[in-house]
Amino acid sequence: MARKIVSFPLHRQLTLAFLVGITVIVLLLSAVLDLSVRHDFHRYLSERQQTAFAQIAAALSAAFIHGESPDAAVLSGVGHQAAMDGFLITVYDNQGRALWDNRAVFEEMQRMMGPMMGATSTAPMPMGSEDAVRDIPRATLPIQVGNTQVGSVRFTLPGTASMSATDAAFLKGLQRALVAAAVIGLLLAWGVGRFLGGRLSRPLEQLTQTAQKLAGGTFGGRLVLPQGAPQEMQALTESFNRLSEALQKQETLRRALFSDVTHELRTPVSTLKSHLEAIQDGVFEPTPERIETLRQQVERLGRLVEDLGRLQQAEASAFTMRHAPVVLGPMIEEVCMQLEPIAEEKDIALSCVVEQPLVQVLGDRDRLVQVLVNLLQNALQFTPAGGSVRVSLTTEKRAETAGHGTGWAVLSVSDTGPGIAAEALPHIFERFYRAPCTRQQGEGHGIGLAVARALVESHGGQMDVESRKGEGSRFIVRLPLWQEETKA
User: Distance (Å, rounded) from C-alpha 314 to C-alpha 365?
Assistant: First the structure.
């Protein structure tokens, strides 16, 4: 049985990851700081003790100024001060005999200070025997009067403590402060992690909800991020909004296409059905005129099917290409001759201006002919009687030099038709798009220019349009030049 993996929301994962990371850092820093504080504090205590030992030894020398027998008053005063500092001292003569110690003073002081220190006291253990202090480090210093040693003093830190109660309390306070700082740091880390997690996850949740709406067929939804959002999130949101707008646009075009295709199918099918039923019932005679009407309707259906087939090829990049060097001049003249009868029938002046007839490009000649025929048919269709259509071929340099040649072959088709409205220009090459004037005339399916541009781009070229309402249009095709010396 497969083990189910538990998944948590993103904001919880981010908060947990942030908290774990900060916890590890805080623990490491706390350990390092604790070790450092302990080391430095013990070094400070050691230095302070050595100074105190030297001061006590110097003070004891005053007890031996008047002879070998020490002054009891001096010993008592020095012993009391040493007890307050937490030291047990024993005075010896030069033969190593113990002369005096402050044990009684020390134990009495410990009994008096115990209740005041309370539970936090780290006061030394009571001194009951030598065994209680035998493992505690000791220091022994000479007692000198002038340059003569008159005895020695031994210092003992009683019990198991290596420091006085005050020093131990101070160190304990530092440790508590470190613990408190660590706890505060963890709480802050939790709060910051929760804030950042929510700030990152909320836009993603909105994105998920909007994407689900897109999947359900609701297009056009937009995401709005709060100010200060991460750049990556802003880029993702902008990309998603563009995708949503593109899908909305394509959905609008798709519905328009279905409406147009339904209309295009309904009219010829209805005409064919009514005429055939009338002929079958004997209402109409199958005269050549009626048969011609039926043939035109069939051709209309055939053109629609061909347009849809070309669009399918363009979307699937399924064009069959046979690349070879193509001389554009003769090709353009050939296409102009083929369409010249249509131009004459519509009283339109069709002209070809080929400045460099031997310009070559690498491509599929039939596909390039298809592009030029589409542009010329559109120009002839929308140019009124008495107008003109002009085809020209020139060359121009281009910035990039990679590819076949160092420039462009520029083929342009200009007309004196009604032109294209400014708001329609950005969409003119989109599939299924038809300008308002085209839709009113019931011409085309918004497929031809999309296919033509796809063919040009498959040759490494570009297709653009220049137009103003009422001033005609100019479609420009740029193809990479092909030169014999660049074949290698």
Answer: 17
3-state secondary structure of 151: strand
The mean pLDDT of the chain is 78
The reply to whether 338 and 296 lie within a common domain is no
- Extended beta strands in 10-126, E state: 88-92, 98-101
Is the domain of 373 the same as that of 477?
Answer: yes
Of the candidates 395, 328, 334, the residue with the CA atom closest to the CA atom of residue 362: 328
> What pLDDT shows up at residue 446?
64
Q: Is the dihedral of CA 93, 99, 102, 103 positive or negative?
A: positive
Q: For 314-358, how does the pLDDT look when each residue is reduced to its tens digit (9 = 90+)?
A: 555 556 678 899 999 999 999 999 999 999 999 999 999 888 888
Alpha carbon distances (Å) from 133 to 75, 89, 124, 126, 202: 22, 12, 10, 10, 66
Does residue 437 form part of some domain? yes
Kindly give, in sequence order, each residue whose CB lies less than 8 Å from that of residue 405, ignoring residues fewer than 6 positions away. Answer: 480, 481, 482, 483, 486
Task: Identify the DSSP state of 481.
Answer: B
CA distances to 55, 79, 90, 99 from 141, in Å? 10, 15, 11, 15
For 480, phi and psi rounded to 5 degrees?
-60, 130
Please tell me whether residues 306 and 359 are part of one structural domain: no
Q: Is 211 helix (H, G, I), strand (E, B) or coil?
A: helix
Mind listing the pLDDT tens digit for each residue in 43-80?
887 788 788 888 888 888 888 887 667 888 888 888 88
The three-point CA angle 156-70-68 to 5° equals 115
Helix (H), strand (E) at residue 76: helix 72-84
**Residues sharing a CB contact under 8 Å with residue 195, sequence separation 6 or more, in sequence order:** none
pLDDT at 216: 75
Higher pLDDT, 308 or 390: 390
Q: Clarify whether residues 121 and 47 are in a common domain.
A: yes
Which residue did the predictor score with more confidence, 315 or 40?
Answer: 40
Q: What domain range is 45 assigned to?
A: 10-178
Give how many domains the chain has, as a whole number: 3
pLDDT band of 401, cuts 50, 70, 90? very low
CA distance 277 to 435: 37
- Side-chain half-sphere exposure of 33, counting CA atoms within 13 A: 15
Residue 483 pLDDT > 80: no
Residue 445 and residue 366 share a domain: yes
Residues 305 and 342 both lie in one domain: no
- pLDDT score for 278: 85
E-assigned strand segments in 122-189:
138-145, 148-156
Q: Is 155 helix (H, G, I), strand (E, B) or coil?
A: strand
Write out the two tokens for 308: 């849809």
| CATH number for position 472 | 3.30.565.10
